[in-house]
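Reproducibility note. Readers wishing to regenerate the assembly model reported in the main text can use the exact inputs given here. Chain order matters: entities are listed in the order in which they were concatenated for prediction.
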Amino acid sequence: MIEEKIIELGFTVPDAPKPLAAYIPALAVNNLVMTAGQLPIVKGELKYKGKLGQDLTEEEGQKAAEVCLLNCLSVIKSVVGSLDNVERILKLTVFVNSADDFTAQPKVANGASELCVKIFGEEGKHVRSAVGVNQLPLGAPVEIEMIAKLK
Amino acid sequence: MIEEKIIELGFTVPDAPKPLAAYIPALAVNNLVMTAGQLPIVKGELKYKGKLGQDLTEEEGQKAAEVCLLNCLSVIKSVVGSLDNVERILKLTVFVNSADDFTAQPKVANGASELCVKIFGEEGKHVRSAVGVNQLPLGAPVEIEMIAKLK
Amino acid sequence: MIEEKIIELGFTVPDAPKPLAAYIPALAVNNLVMTAGQLPIVKGELKYKGKLGQDLTEEEGQKAAEVCLLNCLSVIKSVVGSLDNVERILKLTVFVNSADDFTAQPKVANGASELCVKIFGEEGKHVRSAVGVNQLPLGAPVEIEMIAKLK
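Running the prediction on these inputs yields the following structure tokens for the assembly.
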């Protein structure tokens, strides 16, 4: 039971955040499900804001990445009913709002990747791109999109 | 008839822009079709240029995003023959050329997302990531790639 | 024999680089295989570093893109056993670490795209997005992810 595992780890699956605009948060196609880019929003408010290497520590960036990951799971749940319908996590794309000289995007993205593996075990192991960008919606420090395979 | 709908909305499906380099503009695989990143090019010329939050208004950015969307549809048509072979639009990835303090990427991306829904209705609703970047090919303000499902 | 072709062209398929963090380098799903973002790492060391338009020439950027492409093939091989199991290359996403005024991302990405076509011929022709970003992991000039179709 994936949701119980998430709670054991000290987290919860939030209600699915509403898209900021004219799109849907997640969508199933064939045996895959893919999410829109998720920000570190908690209960409608951006919980972390600013650039890594300037406004936030790496640890804060990792916490932001954890929230993004939980929001990805949340919107997947909203489409497939239960996270127990997920066979495995396939891919994360992690955009990190970075000062021009910040190069530790992988460390920030690990916040999401490591939580993903804690939750799903072997089935949580995914491919990943971590990329620096000079700005993100609302000034968020991290934006993550996920592709997963359904049972 | 999707092309008639596009004309009703006051737009046209352009001829497919030529790739800027050694790649192809769109490609079908299994029951999906995916595009290369499309710029706001009209008849071989970049119609909009520069950074949001510095050189262009949000409204200009939205217009640029509309052109990118039409170019995505154009290159899909060039591969699958007719837009009526598209079952639904699955995903847009929207890269917005942004000044370092510009955070309204979702508003810019809405230019594409809203036109997509006007054209395809329910089948136009897609997942989306909108991301700021510090520069794009040719100095374009927006670059969009699309994944769609075929009938 | 794809590996022989690569050697004829004067390159080799390196050992698969180790991920920088908590993820896996490539993963097969259905009849596709997708890679994590690959940097221009050779034998564990970043071979090129810095921003295009500031620290590296376009030609150096193209060489870096070639290394990224070979690393993509390397990690695919590590998952599917032989590159002869690849039916065709579908997509490259090329992130180019760019000075704020550098707009020749397509030329840099051509380093990867052209090598891909030399190696795989018609089956190497792919869709592609080339995007500028203000920073990449370790300060790498290029990061590339690949999706390919398996036989």
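We highlight two features of this model. The beta strands of chain A are 26-29, 32-35, 41-42, 45-46, 86-97, 127-133, 142-150. The radius of gyration of chain A is 14 Å.
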